[in-house]
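Worked example 2:
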Amino acid sequence: MRKFLFVLSFIGLLAGGLVAYLAGVTQPPLPPAFSPATNPYPKGIYANGILESDQPSGENINVYPEVFGTVTQILVAEGQDVKKGDVLLSIGDSVQRATVEQLESQAQAALTLLEELKAQPRKETLDVAEAQVVAAQAALKTAQDALDKQQAAYDLNPKTISKDALDSALNAVRTAAANLEVARKQRDLTKAGAWIYDINNQERQYNALYKSYRSASALLDKYILRAPKDGKVLAIDAAVGSYVSGTGNYDSYTQGMTPVLVLGSAQPRLNVRCYVDEILVPRLPEASKMKAQMSVRGANVKIPLEFVRMQPIVSPKIELSDQRLERVDVRVLPVIFRISEKPAGVNLYPGQLVDVYIAE
């Protein structure tokens, strides 16, 4: 039994020594996947950079709809070249289209009524008014003839016609004369046509309805998203059936609002927008003497850059990785360079982060 315990203790001692030895052995470090960016200049200024399409001014174009609704059709693909005015996508417009049709019908009805007022008097209506005047004249003549007969009889023998009958005949003549005057005035009113104030009022109503129709039609056109300029579709962040609005489209990955589409320049060249720390801004050389070099992350590739312009405003630094508008104390100056010549076999895409050194 003692012999067995002794052998077991000896084995445990050897195992402990072996574990201690193995734990003390230092493993050689793995070689780096790529060499880190190095400063090619004696006093180069470092800046973070991001690739973007070549723009004469500004940045890539973020396309947002001016209306809200569900995407019904996407007519372009990522990487496709588009011309100004090309249809990019369409949004469901059934409600707005019905509104446009309703306002158009109302405007047409108001226009028809306006034309009717301007076309007055209608010939048939004027003929009726003339006939009413003729009828009133005939009624007056009949009443006058009856009065004349009764007056003649009364003059020959006052006992044959009562005074009341004579007065009634006289009143009938006066009534017929008044009716004739009313018929003439009604004819003149009909002949004069519509009142100018009625025409002006109807014309204003038509103009108001027509402008409402034009406004609704202009809004209907907004349900078709068109390319604001020539360019290349860099990203489509919406899908058929997704809900979009003036703030963009909800991205389930970033859990934030993103542009519906992103358009870049139609030029195949790429720019590098780098952000120089405000502390290093005084060390920047003159524009005519500025040169820079870009290092591609993940590859041992260094590319010379050509100065394009700088945005003469120092703004708060942002997180380039996801473009979060996180305000920090550091402020930066945007400087734009152009990739003068892209090396063969190197993949470069807008939105890619790079390291930039600017010669002091």
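The radius of gyration is 47 Å. The mean pLDDT is 86.
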